[in-house]
């Protein structure tokens, strides 16, 4: 029996706090997977004539960032490289900040942020060499809060954080459920 070749798929989940009223994702196709040739660069930005994935927002750069599919040297593994193409907006991948024309390998699961945009990227590995797929999703809630990413603040050994949100003057205390 022949086995079917699996395809690498990049799942991208988009969130913006104003998506309900501003409809900045209206040009994205959330209904189906899209197939791209392996040598295509997936560009995201405001200019629909240059970008395959267009965001309807004047604060987004004409070309915000790109994703390039490639095969690692001396390996059968495939990966994606992300490059910031915006001169005015920094891009962060997890906690790594990318300036204009900086690029890094996309981790298999990460959060991409620029402005108020949050994009959860998850790579589903495959074997196909000629093409890859993207599958877009829309998040109802902020991705950063949903995923509980580790805080950038160091936590001292005693476990008590040195800074508290306004209105809290003491650390949490443990209460027996019978005392409530």
TrEMBL record:
Name of encoding gene: Tifa
Alphabetized UniProt keyword annotations: Cytoplasm, Immunity, Innate immunity
PANTHER family: TRAF-INTERACTING PROTEIN WITH FHA DOMAIN-CONTAINING PROTEIN A (PTHR31266:SF2), TRAF-INTERACTING PROTEIN WITH FHA DOMAIN-CONTAINING PROTEIN A FAMILY MEMBER (PTHR31266)
FHA domain: residues covered: 43-115
InterPro entries: FHA_dom, SMAD_FHA_dom_sf, TIFA
Entry GO terms, CC: cytoplasm
Region named Disordered: 156-180
A biological process term (GO) from this entry: positive regulation of canonical NF-kappaB signal transduction
High-level lineage: Eukaryota, Metazoa, Chordata, Craniata, Vertebrata
Gene3D superfamilies attached to this UniProt entry: 2.60.200.20
Family under the similarity heading: Belongs to the TIFA family.
Pfam family, one: FHA
Localization annotation: Cytoplasm
Organism per entry: Spizella passerina (Chipping sparrow)
Protein name: TRAF-interacting protein with FHA domain-containing protein A
């Amino acid at each position: 029996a022949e086995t079917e070749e699996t395809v690498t798929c990049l799942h991208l989940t988009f969130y913006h706090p104003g998506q309900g009223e501003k409809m900045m994702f209206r040009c994205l196709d959330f209904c189906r997977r899209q197939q791209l040739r392996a040598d295509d660069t997936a560009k995201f930005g405001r200019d629909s004539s240059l970008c395959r994935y267009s965001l309807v927002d004047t604060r987004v750069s004409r070309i915000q960032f790109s994703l390039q599919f490639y095969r690692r040297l001396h390996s059968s593994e495939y990966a994606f490289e992300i490059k910031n193409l915006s001169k005015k907006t920094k891009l962060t991948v997890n906690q790594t900040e990318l300036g204009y024309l900086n690029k890094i390998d996309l981790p298999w699961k990460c959060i991409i942020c620029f402005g108020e945009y949050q994009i959860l990227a998850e790579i589903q590995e495959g074997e196909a060499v000629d093409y890859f797929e993207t599958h877009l999703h829309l998040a109802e809630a902020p991705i950063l809060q949903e995923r509980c990413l580790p805080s950038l603040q160091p936590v001292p050994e005693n476990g008590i954080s040195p800074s508290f949100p306004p209105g809290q003057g003491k650390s949490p205390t443990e209460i027996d459920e019978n005392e409530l």
